[in-house]
Amino acid sequence: MLEEQVFDAKLHNRVAFHCGVPALDDYLHKYAAQQNSKGISAVFVLLDDAVPSKILGFYTLSAAQIDVQQLSDTERKKLPRYPVPCFRMGRLARDIENCRAGLGEVLIGCAVDRCLRARSLVGAYALLVDAKDEKAKSFYERYGFIPCMDAPMTLYLPLG
């Protein structure tokens, strides 16, 4: 059964994780534990409880804000005229061995669920993500993310 956990470098084998994107692999291998402990980003891993040390995928969350001028006309009408608080999913990756297993969708679902739960304690309007390329942008758009007006590779998902 799949399980989401807070990343723990002592429990989770980050060295064995490879997603095929060197920058994402490098982040998990070298920087995730440090950024997690310093509060720069929260790192969450997806595991199979049968092999709890093997990371199947991961994502990061941090605080962010967005200028309302970046949102659609419909969204802007509902919001104040100053930047609104958001969450940012800074990274999302699944292990290359599990390509096409639907883990990207599971990871997005976990991130949205976590943001909705946190939203009950801390105000946040949307989940932001920066797509690295057009393929990633299309992936996020399939799940309802909307491109920002002046930065179409930055997308947002209203959490309301």
A few lines on this structure:
The protein has helices at 22-38, 73-77, 103-119, 134-142; strands at residues 2-6, 42-48, 51-66, 84-94, 126-130, 146-147, 154-158. The chain is an alpha+beta fold.
Characterization of the model:
- This protein is an alpha+beta fold and 160 residues long.
- It has one domain: Aminopeptidase (3-Layer(aba) Sandwich), CATH 3.40.630.
- The chain is built from four helices and seven strands.
- The two termini are 29 Å apart.
Instruction: List the secondary-structure elements in sequence, H or E.
Output: EHEEHEHEHEE
Question: Any guess at the CATH architecture?
Answer: 3-Layer(aba) Sandwich
Secondary structure category: alpha+beta
Looking at this structure, what is the CATH superfamily? Gcn5-related N-acetyltransferase (GNAT)
**Tertiary shape:** globular
- Unreliable spans are none
CATH topology: Aminopeptidase
Distance between the termini: 29 Å
Instruction: Work out the count of structural domains.
Output: 1
Radius of gyration over C-alpha positions, nearest whole angstrom? 16 Å
Proportion of residues in helical segments: 25-40%
- Strand percentage lies at 25-35%
List the total number of helices: 4
Strand order of the largest sheet: 1-2-3-4-5-7-6
List keywords for this structure.
160 residues; alpha+beta; Aminopeptidase; 32% strand; globular
